[in-house]
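Write out this protein's structure.
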Amino acid sequence: MSFFEIAMIAAFGLSWPISIIKSIRSESVAGKSVLFLVIIFLGYVSGVIHKITKSYDPVIILYIINGILVFTDLVIVVYKKRRSIQKLKSAGIYA
């Protein structure tokens, strides 16, 4: 377990609640990339797998928490993007 690994994961972890709050409050999530969030989520999953198989230590908890936060943001973004497309379709704007 490295202090710098913990600091890095904790710093990233502080940004995800802010991102989630912005996603919830915003009418549009047009600037958010689903692909980017999926890549970040897969990175955290890879970190958890590494911690389980190669170097298990308590920092795995931070990886799991961050993964859950990223997944939460991903679900919100996908939901809002689909809702936005449905609104455009019902207005006859989106084919």
